[in-house]
Amino acid sequence: MSAYLPVELRQLLLEADDHRCAYCQTGEFNSGYPTVVDHIIPLSKGGPTSFENLCFACHRCNQFKGAITEMEDLLTGEIVPLFHPRQQRWKEHFAWDAASIRILGLTAIGRVTVIALRLNNEVIVNARQNWVSAGWHPPAA
Questions:
Q1: How many domains does the chain contain in total?
Q2: Cα gap 114→128, rounded to integer Å
Q3: 68 pLDDT exceeds 90?
Q4: What pLDDT score was predicted for residue 123?
Q5: Does residue 140 lie in a domain region?
Q6: For residue 1, is it within any domain?
Q7: Residue 31 resides in a domain
Q8: Does the residue 86 lie in any domain?
Q9: Rounded distance, CA 20 to CA 136, Å?
Q10: Residue 42 CA: distances (Å) to CA of 1, 57, 101, 116
Q11: Pick from 29, 55, 77, 132: CA 20 to 30 A from residue 8's CA?
């Protein structure tokens, strides 16, 4: 993202996202990747640079998401939008598995977001296994 963000807007985003990726819920401290400001609806698709369209995302989620805003749900065959952190609640679309290692999609939106952003990619799953072994618990979101 190349747009300048006023300090106040950046602080609002940090507070809203609790210093974590709005998608996979990991923070810089345990992901090993810096968080970046993500345009939920990309600039290339007319998304504004405003609080309602911005969130913090880890580098991996932001990279995998790119300009994707919707995807086919393999269960229903319908095209559905990806999770929108400012309009939807994480725990309505996602849950942690029993081991707190993998993110499960509870809805069509959750399912396509898990796939599109690769929320359970090998690197992050291995990191989560290490965190859980060290006593880390995922955020309630």
A1: 1
A2: 16
A3: yes
A4: 85
A5: no
A6: no
A7: yes
A8: yes
A9: 14
A10: 9, 13, 29, 15
A11: 29
Whether the CB-CB separation of 39 and 47 falls below 8 Å is answered with yes
pLDDT in the model for residue 3: 59
Quote the tokens at residue 110. 């959750």
Closest CA to 20 of 66, 56, 65: 56
What are the structure tokens assigned to 137, written together? 């618990």
Average of per-residue pLDDT across 77-106: 96
pLDDT digits (tens, 9 = 90+) for 41-63: 999 999 999 999 999 999 899 99
35-69 CB burial, b ≥16 within 10 A, e <16: bebbbbbbeeeebeeeeebbbbbbebbbebbeeee
Domain enclosing residue 53, as ranges: 7-133
Measuring CA to CA, which residue among 100, 99, 88, 83 is closest to residue 140? 100
User: CB count, 10 Å around CB of 134?
Assistant: 8
Alpha carbon distance 3, 108 (integer Å)? 31
Token couple for 57? 């995302």
> Is residue 96 classed as helix, strand or coil in its secondary structure?
strand
What's the rounded Cα separation, in Å, for the pair 32 and 24?
13
